[in-house]
Amino acid sequence: LESTSGEALAFGPGRLAGGIGSDQALTLAGHRDTHFAFLETLENGDSLTVQRADGARQRFQVSSQEVVDSQAQPLQIPRNDRQLILITCYPFDALTPGGPLRYVVIAQT
What kind of fold does domain 18-108 have according to CATH? Predict the structure, then answer.
């Protein structure tokens, strides 16, 4: 979806930045307990495929995962259109939603 508002994320992952015609990394956010629950099982070297709006597919390979405190470290979206960044809340099994920790997966073409 073309937003990371709470309303949009209720229906699916949202685009934060990047994409076709952009020099920024394609950055998507989604809920940890629905659409992005699979992030917990990713490992370095795993492949991800993104289908763009025009139907073309772009393949990425996971290069890193990290936990970031969103209150202490603002998200820096790199100027790298060959990167995919996936973001969700952390921990995956948190009982209370809305904490400051984010799980960030970075993948490269």
Answer: Sortase; Chain: A; (2.40.260)
